[in-house]
Amino acid sequence: MINGSAFCAALALTERDYPGPAAARPLAVSRKASVSPRSALPGYCPWRPSVAARSSHPRRRLGRSYLEALLAQRGVTADDRRSSIERPARPNPLARRMIPAGVPTGAPNILLIVRGRRSGIERTTPVAMLDFDGHSYVQASYGAAGWARNLRAAGEATVIHSGGRRSPVHAIEVPSDKAAAILRRVLEPYRQLDFVRRLLGSRVRPPVALLRRYRIRIDDTPQDYLAEARRHPLFELRPA
Contact 130/186 with Cβ under 8 angstroms? Predict the structure, then answer.
């Protein structure tokens, strides 16, 4: 347990440590100053800047206004910012080692090697693969960005299966209406979980291969599946 004096000392700011102009720096407190009633409270720290001083810091104001202007210039709305969970995440380096070694990852994952559309550098990404009716599919669960955009441009990739087996494939993007029908056929046998839908909202969905693995269905109507297919493209992988 950290007492009030230790916490106060940890938060003490000096002119060297605190960025910004002198007007935004907290005033130094003289040791000879009179003791106020608040200083007798446990955990009181006179060196800690007030909430108003922290929020009015010029560098913080510049950062907020610059970010808002940049987002508005790019046409990013408040709803898009709330859905930041859909932004592509960095590939899991642990999964890159587990999949070729044949170690179970809890999902039908593969490694997808796709050449960058601009750099020409091959990128390796763990994705969940769906095997259904003799066809293999991968779904871009973060939308048409990152590896999905590269796969759409390249039209081919290399798949590393569990255990290290490699196979070159051709990637064909499934049209939204056909992809919606495939998603519905795959997940229709399972029970719909309303609380998962309320938890994830209307835009975020795990990959269809993962939902099938754990026998979970979120969407219900054909319109729901069509909207999901448009948000998260489905690619069929055919042997090259």
Answer: yes
The answer to whether 109 and 126 are in contact (CB under 8 A) is yes
Start-to-end CA distance of the chain, whole Å, equals 62
CA distance linking residue 215 with residue 99, whole number of Å? 22
CATH 2.30.110.10 domain locations along the chain: 93-239
Query: What global pTM score does this model have?
Result: 0.63
Structure tokens at 237: 């992988």
At which residue do the structure tokens 């003791």 appear?
A: 35
CATH of domain 93-239: 2.30.110.10
Q: Which amino acid is at 51?
A: V
pLDDT digits (tens, 9 = 90+) for 33-80: 444 555 555 555 555 555 444 444 444 444 555 556 655 665 555 444
Beta bridge partners of 125: 112
Q: How far is CA 178 from CA 62, 188, 208, in A?
A: 47, 15, 14
Please give the full DSSP string across 81-127, using - where no structure is assigned: HHTGGGSPPPP-HHHHHHHHHT---SS-EEEEEEE-TTT--EEEEEE
Count of other CB atoms within 10 angstroms of residue 109: 21
